[in-house]
């Protein structure tokens, strides 16, 4: 695939949690270089890492379905190591990269840093056909706000991030709210930088494709006992008892279930199903970007509500449609657990949900990366709610 120079020069590729621009490496001769550039017009990724004294440097890029490509970098005479990741559609989006110097994994200060795997990790943004949606455009931009609130449920302070749409600060309007959940081992920053949510929604609002709304992003990794890796209802209780009241007391938002939506990717899709099905009185819209009623195992002392919701849908499908104006599911064949989505298809079919007007199902084209599919799922879901 070919990309325009304008697209490859968009600043979104350099926006990262620590900086609005990629760090520069300073060589011994005083030259300054970027660690990542894009060869034109194909959008291949050129890695340049300065490692004088290293014998070998290898970049490993993880992408869909747990695959990883290794890129041994070629050593130059000036301490620079270079290598190219050829652009493929399945690599598109924000992908985690691991850097090995002399067989030792390091966190490179010259590549963007995110939070995944419950730790800091390097990542890069790889151009893709879906990237136009998240480019920084000459349109009004919303704001991202950090809030610290007390959770009586968890007996601790918690942090959430809030996207407010363009014009929010200077208006007296009230807005609906999407509570958006991230994937496993990430945190409340994930949708901002990996998902590029602010730019995506800014562009949709400017194009008249969606009505403005707020987005609240919490840390989905909270647990009643933080040493436990298994799911429990800590996020659900914290969201319902602490976070939603906090948001509705502090921000100009419309209340009632038809002004609240809940959605998420991967682990966040699992939690969306659980919270949305358990609280139809709170949420009128549900979005799952990978879907996840099905899971390889259930967790001890944690009862999932979708079984009851599906049984009730069989008896009274109109009641299900009355509870949710939108029940949205999307994925890509490149998703790590695509078979879960297919199993959810059978669950929805058996319950008759697939025939209801509130039901939306999208499988994005083959070779769509899972990162791109999450962004595209949010893009399409946002145009259906409120």
From TrEMBL:
InterPro entries: AB_hydrolase_fold (IPR029058), Esterase-like (IPR000801), Ig_E-set (IPR014756), Mycobacterial_A85_antigen (IPR050583). It comes from the Bacteria. GO terms for molecular function: acyltransferase activity, transferring groups other than amino-acyl groups. PANTHER family: DIACYLGLYCEROL ACYLTRANSFERASE_MYCOLYLTRANSFERASE AG85A, ENTEROCHELIN ESTERASE-RELATED. This is Esterase. The lineage of its organism: Bacteria, Bacillati, Bacillota, Clostridia, Lachnospirales.
């Amino acid at each position: 695939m070919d990309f325009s120079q304008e697209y490859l020069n968009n600043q979104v590729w350099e926006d990262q949690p620590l900086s609005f621009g990629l760090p520069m490496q300073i060589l011994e001769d005083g030259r300054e270089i970027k660690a990542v550039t894009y060869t034109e017009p194909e959008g291949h990724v050129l890695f340049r890492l300065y490692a004088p004294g290293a014998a070998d440097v290898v970049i490993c890029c993880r992408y869909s379905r747990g695959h990883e490509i290794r890129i041994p970098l070629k050593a130059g005479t000036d301490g620079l190591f270079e290598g190219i990741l050829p652009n493929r559609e399945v690599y598109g989006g924000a992908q985690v990269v691991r850097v090995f110097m002399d067989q030792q994994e390091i966190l490179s200060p010259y590549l963007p840093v995110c939070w995944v795997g419950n730790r800091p990790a390097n990542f890069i943004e790889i151009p893709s056909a879906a990237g136009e949606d998240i480019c920084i455009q000459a349109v009004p931009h919303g704001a991202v706000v950090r809030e610290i609130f007390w959770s009586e449920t968890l007996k601790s302070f918690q942090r959430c991030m809030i996207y407010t749409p363009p014009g929010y600060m200077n208006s007296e309007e009230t807005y609906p709210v999407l509570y958006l959940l991230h994937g496993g081992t990430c945190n409340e920053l994930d949708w901002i930088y990996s998902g590029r949510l602010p730019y995506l929604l800014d562009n949709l609002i400017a194009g008249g494709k969606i009505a403005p709304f707020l987005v609240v992003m919490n840390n989905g990794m909270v647990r009643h006992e933080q040493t436990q890796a298994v799911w429990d209802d800590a996020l659900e209780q914290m969201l319902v008892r602490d976070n939603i009241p906090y948001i509705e007391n502090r921000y100009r938002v419309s209340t009632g279930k038809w002004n609240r939506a809940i959605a998420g990717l991967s682990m966040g899709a699992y939690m969306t199903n659980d919270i949305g099905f358990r609280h139809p009185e709170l949420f009128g819209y549900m979005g799952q970007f990978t879907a996840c009623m099905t899971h390889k195992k259930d967790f001890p002392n944690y009862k999932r509500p979708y079984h009851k919701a599906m049984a009730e849908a069989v008896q009274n499908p109109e009641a299900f449609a009355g509870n949710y104006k939108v029940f949205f599911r999307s994925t890509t064949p490149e998703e790590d657990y695509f078979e879960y989505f297919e199993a959810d298809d059978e669950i929805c079919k058996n319950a008759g949900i697939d025939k209801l007007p509130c039901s939306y199902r999208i499988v994005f084209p083959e070779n769509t990366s899972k990162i791109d599919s999450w962004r595209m799922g949010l893009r399409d879901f946002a145009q259906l709610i409120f």
